[in-house]
Structure formats: C-alpha cells, structure tokens
Design brief:
The structure holds 3 protein chains of 3 kinds. By secondary structure, chain A is mostly helical. Chain A has 10 helices and no strands. In chain B, helix 1 (2-27) runs antiparallel to helix 15 (287-315), helix 5 (87-122) crosses helix 9 (178-217) and helix 6 (127-141) packs across helix 9. The N and C termini of chain B lie close together (7 Å). The chains are: A mainly alpha, B mainly alpha, C alpha+beta.
Chain lengths: 275, 324, 588
C-alpha cells in the first residue's frame, strides 16, 4: 500500500500526457465537430460515443483528449517558462554579490505580491481574447517569482557547503563550479516544485477557462467544458462529470507525483527513537 | 535596520506598481476607455467636457500620471461609467464583502491547516498520515470551481441547508431585526468560506507539516524527549512554537489571494465582493472602476504585508534581535 | 470517532505511536478531522459525477421557516436595472420597476390594439376628448392622483415629462418615439392637451404607451446632462402603486406598496428584485422557494419547474424575435460593403439549418423566425416565401463570387485571403450564445471562419450603435405596434436619427410601403401593406431570421398572476394575489 501510490500516480500521469500528445490520432472525431445537433444532443455514453456527447452534439471523448492537449500544452509551457526564468534569476541572485542579490530578491518579493487573478483580468481587459501561447506566457510570468525564491535559497544553501569552497579554492571557473557542483543539487527539488507548479497551473488555467477568460470556444479546455455543461447538470450530468473527472485525476496524479519527488529529495523521515 | 528598510522598500514598491498599473489601464488602453465611456455617460458635449477636465486628458502623460497618483492616494477614483456611482463607494462595499469572506475562509484554513498539518508532521508514518498527505496535496490543487459546485449541489440543492448564493436575504435586510440579519449573513457565508478554507487550508497544512517535520529532527526535541518530557508536551511547548513562523510567512504570501483571488468562488456563489465586481467591470469596460480596484488591491496587499511583518516580529525573538 | 485514551506511556517505536491518543489532545478536532478527511477524500475522488446523479434524482425541499408577516413578492432577475427614471431606462429590469413606480396617461389592455383608443383604459387620465380634426387630444387628470411625497399630480407634470423626453441634453433613447408630436400644452391645472402635426392611426398609442409622468417639482432644478447621477435618480419619486424603497446596486431593488394610492392598494406589500446573474443559481432559487418569480425558464430549468409541485409554469405571449444582423457599411475581406451584396446574404441564409438550430437551442420552446416580426401579434401569413436551407446553393454562390475552398486547410479563400467575420453576441443571453456556437460550426463546414465574441450587454449595445461590428446576434423586443418596430429597426436613417437601424439598411421601396401603412386607417389595407413590407425585407435577405422564443415564467404556486401581457408580463403586477403569507428564508 505504501509504495503503490507514487508508482500508480506516475503511470496515470504518464498515460494522460501520452494520450494528450496522441490526441489527433486517437480521437474518433474532431473536437469542434458538431455531428448532428438535433439527434445527438446530450447523448449518454454509448458504443459510438464512449463518453457521450455534449449540448452541441460534439463527442466528449474527443473533446476531452483535445482539451488535455491544450491544457497540458499550456501548463507545460508555462511551467517551463517559470522554471527556467525563475532558476536563472534566483541562481544569479544567489551567486551574485550580496547587495545585488538582495536587490534582485526584493524585486521578486514585490512581484509575488501582485495578485495573479488581477494580472489575468487586466490582461484580458487589454487584449480581449488570449490565445493558448499568450495564456501560457502569462501564466508562466505569474509563476516565476515563487520558483526563483526557491532557487535562491537552494543555491545559497549549497554554496555555503564545503565542497563548493573547495572547488573555488582549487581555482575552477564559476561557471564550472555552478554546473558541476551546485546544479546537481538543484534538479531534485526543482523537478518536484515544477511538477507541483504544473498541477497548480493546470488548475488555474481551468479556472480561467471556466470564467471565460482562458481558452475561447470552440477550442476545448476542461475548464470551458465544465462551463458549457452547467445548464445541463440535472439532465446530462456526464457532460460536467467528464471534464471534472479528467481534471481531478490529472491534477491529483501530478501532485502525488510531485509529493513523491519532494520526499525523495528531502531528508528521510527515519523513525526517531523515543518519539 | 537593514531588514526594516527592505520591508519599507517592498511596501513602497508594491504601491507604486499597482498605481502605475491602474494608470496604464485607465489611460493607455487602446480604444480610448473614456471615449467609450462618454458614450454611456450622457452622450452630450457638456458631459464629455466635464470628463476631459476631470481626467486631464489633454495634458502631457507625466502630468496625467502625477494627477492620477495624487487622486489615487487621496481616494478620489472618479465615477463608475456604467452605474454612475463613485468608484470609491463601490470598491469599499466590494472590499468589505471580500474581506468578510476571505477573512472567514482564512480563519477556517488556519484552524484546519495548522492542526492537520501539525498532526501529520508529528506522526508522518501512520497510515492515516500518509493518506492525509496525498489528500492534502490533491485538495491543494483542485480547482475552486469544482469544490464550489460540489458543495452547492449537495448542501444547497439537495439538503437545502444553506442558501444558493448571495450575501443576504433581501427580505430580511429590510424587515428583519439586527440579530436575524447577522444570523442570516453568517448563514450565507458558510459555503463560500468553506470552499476557500479547503484549498487554503491544504496549502497551510502542507507548509505546517513540512515545518513540523523539520523541527522534529532537531536536536532540542530529542533532548527534551530524552529528559523524559511527554511527547505531547514536547510538541506543544517546544516544537510547535518553532514551527509556527514559517506558516505565518506562508499566510503573508497568500495575502494577494485574499483580496483578488477569490473571483471564482465569488462568481459561483454570487458573492458581491471585489473579485466579482472587478470581473463584471472588465466585461463592461468600466475602466475607472478597474483602475481603482487595481490601486486599492495594491494598498491592501501592502498593508497586509506590514501586518504580517509585525506578527512575525512578535513571534520570533531572533528577528527582533536582528533588527536591533 | 473521538479521543481514546490508553493511559499508557508512549511506546518506544514509531509505528505504535499512531495508536496512542492522549486524553488531553487539546484540539479534539485533531482526532476527528482525519476521519472527516477520510470521508471527504473518496467523495472528492469519485467526483462530481456521483453527486450530480444524486441531484438529478432528487428534488429540492423548499425552505420552510416562517419568520415575518409582510407579504413579499421576490423576482429573480439576471441583471440589475440600469436606471429607474423613465426617460433614461433601457433595460428590461429597469422598465419593470419604472412601470410600477410611474404612471402613464392611459394603460393598454390585454388586446394590445394599437389603433385608436379602444385598446386603452384610464390611468392617470380619467377621461380624454379628441378634437374634431383629431390633431389633438385633451386629457383630464384624476384629481386624487398624488406623488409619493404627497404633492398632487398636475398637468404641468405631464408637460414637463414630455419636455424631458425630447430634450437633447437628456439624450433619452426614447426621444424618437415622440416624432410627430408637435407640443403638449396645459389648459388648466388638471387638463393637458397633446398636439400632433398630422393624424395617424396610432397617435393615441404613441402618447399613452410611451409617456411616463415624472414630478416637475422635484426635477425642475436638476441639471439635465447629469440626470443619471442626480439624487432623484438614486431615489425616484413617482405616482405609481408602488413607491421606491431601496436599491443596492447589483444586488437587489425593493419597492413597497403605496397604500393610499388613487388606483387602490396593491396586494403585495413589497416587490423585491434579486439580481442572480448565474442562471443555475436563479433556477435553483425559484425551485427552492427563495424566489417567487423567474421570467423565462428554458431547458433543464423548465423541465424541473414543470415537475415541481410548488411551482407553476405560466406561458405568456412573446413579441420577441432574434436575428443575425449584418453591418452593411462594413469593409470586410477586401470588399467594401461586403454584406451589401444580396448574393452573399442569401448564401449565408441558405447555409444555415435554422430549424435544426432552433431545435437544438430551444427544444420545443421556440420557433424559427420568419421575418422582422413576431407571429403572435400581427396575424401574418406564416406561409410566406422564405429562403430555404440549401448548402449546395450556398457553396455554389460563394464559388461563383470567387471564394473557393483551399484544399489544404479547407477554408474559403479569394486571392489568398480567408473568408472570415466577427459575430458579436451578448453575454447575458444564453440562447444567443448557443446560436453563436452553432452558427460558427455550420459556417465552418462551408469553409467560412466566424469568430464569436461575447460582450457585456452595455458594450454590445454601444458597439452596435457605433457601427463597430461585422455581424451580431440581436433580439428585438417589439412594441405592440408593428409600425414602430419596423420603422425603428429597418427604415432608412432619416437625417442623424438612426433609431435602432444598426445594420444601416436602406431600402427605398420598403420605406414607401411603410409610409403608406402609417397613414392607412383601414385595418385590412394596413395588414396587406405590412405583409408586403415583410415580404420585401425577407426577399432582400436583410438579416438571417433565427428564432421566436416561447416565454415561460416559473411562478410560485401560492402566487396568482393576472394580466401577463406579451410585451410586459409585469403589467398588472399590483393586482397579482397571494394565497398565503411570504415566508422568509433563513434556517434556524
């Protein structure tokens, strides 16, 4: 029981990502294809439509797959942007001189104070609709301060360790020191944090799409699938259940995976005698 | 001193950024935000002239910014283009409602989060503890609208225990007694506050768990145990107080969310707070209201972070020594 | 599950720690919370699916605690009123309140006859007298009519109200309704005379239906340009059977009964409009009894309301029709006046399966619109000639115009440019948003890209007025008079008066027929002329006629509604009766 959850969640998450990548090949219909708006409206799951159809007679399985594709693309892109920018900024701040480093982190602190939702609302007010690329960029920009704070602390911590001092004393170039001695200690915690950030951004993107600020129809995103399904909660509950279940499973497996990664990289919780 | 200076700079920077963002929204948005508004404001030349004078639209940009900043600080944020109400009044109502909701949600979150997180951090190997860990991580990232819709469906629709939405019953607000009104408002507060409390509580719980786990490894804990102090005493008198400040820091980091982040919950529960006000204002291109909301959020977040610093100071003797 | 105490000292190993619970665990919640979490976890895990199944099976029990003695009618509305002063009101919600707060000279009966004065009964005017040449009517006001602040209603109030409507400083959107009225004069303190430039069949309707009376003594000194921001506008005073009580913006609007009113005291002591913009919350609130009236239920909400024993679904007539309008003046896709080409418009109409769309979006609660009219009111020939659903013909027309399908991306292109346009949709109308998505898909299968843009209603209206749109889905709520609707929406703009002709449509033949109809006093001749006008517009494919909704209101069973007119279901609200006292909705 104890070791099954992380393995299980890894498999589930991997499967979802794979399905998302293969969506155009695997999906039986197009995501915006309205098959028969009179006869196939809100049909329950059947052999031809494994997850049923929605109010516009679009196949839910296909929409869920393409929704996964869009949502995961946005989430991965945003996470990558956030992680790369954040690590660079935090790492640079940590290796830089004291004053400069503190100044850089002050900027980070200030940026963290900006409410994310406000940023998105303002962006939508200015731009109208956001394409997936811009959405990913915006989400990434809103998330990098947190990563950079983490990278800063990690690098500062490793820097003070003796083997780094030794490397400096031996005359290695700073870049080499960073790559060979410091960087390996970053990958673990940053991967864990990145995975958790991925789950968080996924949830945020679906929330934005739910409010109508994210992916615009007829583009599929789990968030706007839920929004489409709201008027039919009573009569066609599966139209809401499918995207919600997808969200829950994906977010859950990603966060369980992140948890496991984090556990692997921190100090062990070995039993302490006497407690 | 260095520490205090940093915090002061931080606060000033937040205020400056939010004021600038508010200015950008009002004056630099493509499509002349006030031009559209004058269409709605009376369609007459006189009204348009009044707006020109009020916002100083013909002066150079720097002067406009200075005027805007002065107005922002004194609280004169103009008039809503859609409803004609003073922006400050509408924002104040929205802020009060949001703080009521977020404050209650945060209270729930702290109670739940600190207790569960500490419990789990102290006993990480238990079966329930491990399950709890995964559950907490899941709850931490579950989208708010899923939780909100679930709660509304069970408690408002099926069990009819709580009202569907809104902040108060309209009839009672006119004819009810003070105590009835208070009870009614609390009743409307429960579901949205619980929705917020679940997500935030999970975040706090995770942080608390990590903090307690870390503290558990410390030498002083082992020493206390070796001395014969009971496990509970060790926890409550030695470990827990040390593990508290990181949680306060996390709460401080959540301040921006308190003010601007509850948009989804406010929308689903039709709670008349700042978030839903802002969302509607943006949809209606009511730029004076949007700009005012941005500046106000900056102020509130800045003051909140000052508050957090004060609390941290009080809790952590080392910081106090540092500052001296 | 609560604290158990073993009373034994802590065992040495960690695994056994979990079974030790201190009797003094300070927060008992520490013990019980994991249990709750363990229960919540599988619930959340199984997800929404389980819970909405329960919902589908269940039926909400109404709230029951009786707490207050006043009788209150609660109306759940999707939006807040925009204004309450009649000269400024545009939204339906505002109109509902304004109709209860203010009086007109005469009020329409259910027959909705707009020619002559047979279809009207006295309101503020006790009786009226036509001049022999019909160029003026003298109205004798009811002497016991009073403003809510106690002042009596006098003829100068009527004169003042008319002046306010047509004053350009006020810029009332209803000013054009009074075209043709020369002046309003005061004969004595209780007699007011309205003068016209020429006779017309609907002149009585024009003055009685459109003119709401506001108090001169309260508004005389208010600056006209900032009327909307004035004190009066926030707390209006009228002479209607309800008086203003409270208005919390975006939340609720409350009016209370004017007990000493000259037309009698209304049955409900209070009427409250609660703003519930979320349609699900609105339908849930009326199903659970928190609200009494929800106008316009559709889809799932309609089915649930039908099944609920505490609700009645009441159908009231509809004068609405929805259509996709084109901006004739727009330069699109490299062509000036892209929609000015009759072939393009006909092809677009033929490309849409209107019957299937109506079936999908409205089930049986609507019909395909046939033209710029609502069938119910004008007794029109429903077998008139229409442009049928013919995708092949549409494709052929576009091909012949040079828009051919690119083999690679399946889009229609001419000289490398893809054929696309933007369709504006108001975010407040769920039905029109659905139509937007349906139209988008149907035209996409033909290779035409449609960008659907939902907008807030205020913004939507502003962009229509300014002509900043390619196409839009608009719904027209007709007046009882077909002439007024046709003239406002489809007659050529005269001078700077565009009226509601957002499409900038101009058809001289149509204008001529309308002019003839406006002076036709013979009922049969009038009908024939209207029919000819409709056919002209439909043949010209001036717009794509989409649907006419059937309107159902969900009303609590204890409320007996009366006089729900097609143009205003709230018209006789003061006379609605109740069978039991209103119960407040707090749970103990």
């Amino acid at each position: 029981m104890r070791n099954n959850m992380p393995r299980f969640s890894t498999i589930v998450f991997g499967a979802i990502v794979l399905l998302a990548i293969l969506a155009p090949l695997v999906a039986p219909f197009g995501p915006a294809q309205q098959l028969d708006i009179v006869a196939l409206k809100n049909r329950a799951p059947s052999v031809t439509h494994l997850l049923g159809t929605d109010a516009y007679s679009r196949d839910l399985l296909s929409r869920a797959l393409f929704g996964a594709r869009t949502s995961l693309f946005v989430a991965f892109a945003a996470t990558t942007i956030a992680t790369v920018v954040g690590t660079l900024w935090g790492g640079l701040a940590a290796t830089a001189a004291n004053r400069l480093g503190d100044g850089m982190m002050l900027i980070v602190d200030v940026l963290r104070s900006v409410p994310r939702m406000l940023l998105f609302l303002v962006a939508v007010a200015l731009a109208g609709a956001l394409s997936p690329v811009w959405l990913a960029a915006l989400l990434g920009i809103s998330a990098w301060p947190a990563i950079s704070r983490m990278a800063f602390v990690l690098v500062r911590d490793v820097q003070s360790r003796s083997f780094v001092e030794a490397a400096h004393a031996a005359g290695s170039a700073p870049g080499r020191v960073f790559l060979r001695h410091i960087a390996p200690h970053l990958t673990g915690p940053l991967t864990a944090a990145g995975t958790l950030l991925l789950a968080d951004i996924l949830a945020l993107e679906s929330g934005l799409s739910f409010l109508g600020l994210g992916i615009k129809p007829p583009g599929a995103s789990w968030g706007n699938m839920v929004q489409d399904a709201l008027p039919y909660l009573g009569s066609a509950w599966w139209t809401a259940a499918v995207p919600c279940a997808c969200l829950l499973v994906t977010v859950f497996s990603a966060s369980a995976l992140a948890d496991q990664l984090q556990k692997m990289t921190r100090r062990d919780e070995t039993p302490v005698p006497g407690l | 001193m260095n520490y205090l200076l940093r915090r002061l700079l931080h606060v000033l920077a937040v205020v400056a950024i939010s004021t600038s963002l508010g200015f950008v929204v009002l004056h630099l948005v493509p499509g002349d935000p006030l031009g559209l508004a004058t269409e709605q404001a009376g369609r007459s030349a006189a009204a348009r002239a009044q707006l020109q004078a009020q916002y100083g639209l013909d002066k150079p940009l720097v002067q406009q910014y200075a005027a805007f900043a002065k107005r922002a600080v004194t609280g004169n944020w103009g008039v809503s283009m859609v409803s004609g109400r003073p922006v400050g009044e509408a924002l104040r109502e929205g802020l009060v409602n949001t703080l009521k909701l977020s404050g209650t949600g945060l209270l729930l979150a702290v109670l739940l989060g600190v207790s569960i997180g500490a419990w789990q951090g102290w006993r990480p190997q238990s079966v329930i503890g491990r399950m709890l860990g995964t559950v907490l991580t899941g709850l931490y990232v579950i989208p708010e609208f899923v939780v909100a819709i679930t709660l509304i469906t069970i408690f408002s629709y099926h069990l009819s225990v709580f009202p569907i939405g809104g902040a108060m019953d309209p009839v009672l607000s006119v004819v009810g007694s003070k105590s009835q009104q208070t009870r009614d408002q609390l009743w409307h507060l429960v579901l949205p506050a619980v929705t917020l409390g679940i997500g935030w509580g999970a975040a706090i719980a995770r942080q608390q768990r990590t903090a307690v786990l870390d503290t558990r490894q410390e030498d002083f804990v082992r020493t206390a145990r070796a001395k014969g102090v009971s496990a509970n005493n060790v926890f409550f008198r030695h470990a827990f107080p040390v593990a508290l400040p990181p949680v306060v820091t996390v709460i401080g980091l959540m301040l921006p969310v308190l003010v601007g982040g509850a948009v989804v919950v406010e929308t689903v529960f039709a709670w008349p707070g700042l978030g839903s006000l802002l969302l509607k204002a943006i949809g209606a291109r009511d730029y004076p209201l949007v700009s005012g909301a941005i500046v106000l959020t900056g102020f509130v977040v800045a003051s909140g972070s000052v508050l957090t610093d004060v609390v941290l100071f009080a809790l952590n003797p080392r910081l106090r020594a540092h500052a001296q | 599950m609560c604290c158990r105490s073993t009373g034994v000292r802590a065992p040495p190993t960690l695994e056994r720690v979990t079974r030790h619970k201190s009797r003094r665990c300070i927060v008992r919640g520490l013990c019980s919370l994991p249990a709750i979490q363990t229960i919540m976890f599988p619930l959340q895990r199984c997800g929404l699916a389980l819970l909405v199944i329960l919902q589908a099976c269940g039926d909400a029990a109404p709230n029951s605690s009786a707490n207050t003695s006043a009788t209150v009618l609660t109306i759940a509305t999707p939006a807040d009123a925009d204004a309450l002063v009649p000269q400024l009101v545009q939204s339906t919600q505002g109109k509902q309140a304004a109709d209860l707060l203010f009086d007109h000279l005469a009020r329409p009966t259910n027959t909705l006859e707009t020619v002559g004065d047979a279809g009207f009964k006295p309101e503020l005017a006790q009786r009226w007298q036509w001049a022999p040449d019909s160029l003026s009517i003298a109205f004798a006001l009811n002497p016991s009519a009073q403003w809510h602040d106690g002042h009596p209603v006098r003829a100068k109030d009527v004169q003042f109200s008319f002046a306010l409507y047509i004053d350009p400083a006020v810029a009332s959107p209803h000013a054009s309704n009074f075209a043709g009225i020369d002046s309003v004069t005061v004969r004595d303190s209780l007699t007011v005379v309205v003068w016209w430039n020429q006779r017309s069949p609907e002149q009585f309707f024009q003055i009685a239906f459109n003119l709401a009376i506001v108090p001169e003594h309260l508004l005389a000194n208010v600056p006209r340009t900032t009327l909307a921001q004035s004190e009066y506008a926030q707390k209006p005073v009228g002479s209607g059977r309800y008086r203003f009580e409270q208005w919390t913006r975006e939340q609720q609007l409350i009016v209370t009964a004017d007990t000493g009113n000259y037309r009698g005291r209304p049955n409900f002591a209070r009427v409250v409009w609660v703003v519930t913009s979320d349609p699900i919350a609105a339908s849930l609130s009326v199903l659970s009894g928190q609200a009494d009236v929800l106008e316009s239920v559709r889809g799932d909400a309609f089915v649930k309301a039908r099944q609920s024993p505490s609700l009645r679904t009441v159908e009231y007539g509809s004068l609405d029709y929805a259509y996709m309008l084109f901006n004739f003046d727009r330069t699109l896709n490299g062509t000036r006046r892209f929609f000015g080409d009759h072939a393009v418009r006909t092809a677009l109409t033929a490309a849409l399966d209107r019957k299937a769309m109506v079936r999908n979006a409205l089930d049986s609660l609507g019909a395909v619109a046939l033209g710029p009219f609502a069938r119910s009111v004008t007794g029109v020939d429903t077998a008139m000639k229409q442009i049928g659903y013919d995708v092949a013909m549409a494709a052929h027309v576009f091909d012949s115009l040079g828009w051919t399908v690119d083999a690679k991306d399946k889009l229609r292109k001419k000289n490398g440019k893809a054929l696309r346009f933007e369709l504006l949709v108001p975010a407040s109308s769920a039905t029109r948003q659905k139509f937007g998505v349906l139209i988008q898909a149907q035209l996409a299968s033909l290779g035409i890209t449609v960008d659907v843009t939902p907008l807030e209603p205020g913004l939507f209206a502003a962009r229509l007025e300014k002509g900043e749109f390619d196409a839009a889905l608009n719904m027209w709520r007709s007046d009882p008079s077909p002439m007024v609707s046709l003239r406002q929406v489809w007659a050529s703009p005269r001078g700077r008066e565009m009226g509601a002709n957002y499409a900038r449509y101009a058809n001289a033949q149509f204008d001529a027929v309308l002019d003839s109809a406006s002076t036709a006093f013979n009922a049969q001749q009038r009908r024939r002329l209207y029919q000819r006008a409709y056919q002209l517009i439909v043949d010209d494919a001036a717009a794509v006629w989409l649907y006419e909704p059937r309107n159902f209101a969900a009303i609590n069973a204890r409320v007996s509604p009366v006089g729900m007119r097609a143009d205003a279901w709230w018209a006789e609200l003061p006379d609605w009766s109740v069978t039991s006292a209103r119960v407040a909705t707090t749970k103990p």
